[in-house]
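User: I'm curious whether this sequence folds into something compact or stays loose and floppy. Could you predict its structure so I can see for myself?
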Amino acid sequence: MLCYSGRSCGEKDWEKYEVARKLKSRVDDIRYQYLQDLKSKQMVTRQRAVALYFIDKLALRAGNEKEEGETADTVGCCSLRVEHITLHEQLDGNECVVEFDFLGKDCIRYYNKVPVIKKVKEEIKET
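Assistant: Here's the prediction. I'll summarize afterward.
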């Protein structure tokens, strides 16, 4: 295992920052596209749009599937399950609120109540 101070780790971090710099000029286009995708007839496109919405608005990490036998039940945006989300028509004076409660990276609990646009709430409800 390489340590974080090693050359290889520094290069990987540098690559991530370079990708972020390139994305910076495309953020408005990406936001426009996922808002358009929420209106798609294809469910998979709408689901991707919801995931991008949460990654953008809440800075959630994407997450990935776990291998069989992994002990920690940590999740990211794309591996959220029904038990991690509660929908509220109204909560704390806000309409269309999504409540998240799950273990994120390094088993750190993520708990948040977030007002969302109506289309996002409808899509979560449908899925």
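Summary: The mean pLDDT is 89. The CA atoms of residues 96 and 118 lie 6 Å apart.
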